[in-house]
Amino acid sequence: MAVKVRIPTPLQRLTEGKEEVEGKAGSVIELINDLETRYPGIAERISDGGKVRRFVNVYVNEEDIRFLQAELTLVKDGDEVSIVPAIAGGQTACSVKGQFDARLSALDAQRLIRRDL
User: Where are the domains of the chain?
Assistant: First the structure.
């Protein structure tokens, strides 16, 4: 069993049109480097100098790695990793009390990307 990696639409041209690929367990940055061996060009679009690019969000089992151990977050066989380009603009959801909630779950972000917004 391997790590499942969900690929956003803009990067699927690098993965031969695949929405989901498999990678090796290890840290997130090791996983990205592993993907690069099979899908040349993907790492430079996701990371730079061993760090995930500022406008790319990575989720491990729907948890944002920025709130875990960033690029050093470990992934194991059976985990699901989502690569989600940041989405700018549009409206922010507003609660009844007038507070803003701009966080999207990994699943919500994937749904938006699949709609090619």
Answer: 3-114
The whole-number pLDDT of residue 37 equals 97
Give me the chain's average pLDDT, please: 85
Cα–chain center distance at 100: 23
In 3D space, the residue among 14, 19, 7, 3 whose CA is nearest the CA of residue 84 turns out to be 7
User: Residue written as tokens 């700018």?
Assistant: 88
CA torsion angle for 50, 11, 21, 106 (degrees, to 10)? Answer: 80
pTM, rounded to two decimals = 0.74
Burial call 40-60: b when 16+ CB within 10 Å, e when fewer: eebbebbbeeeebeeebbbbb
d(CA 72, CA 11): 22
CATH architecture of 3-114: Roll (3.10)
pLDDT digits (tens, 9 = 90+) for 56-112: 999 999 999 999 999 999 999 999 999 999 876 655 554 444 444 455 566 666 665
Q: What count of residues does the chain have?
A: 117
Residue 32 phi, psi (nearest 5): -60, -45
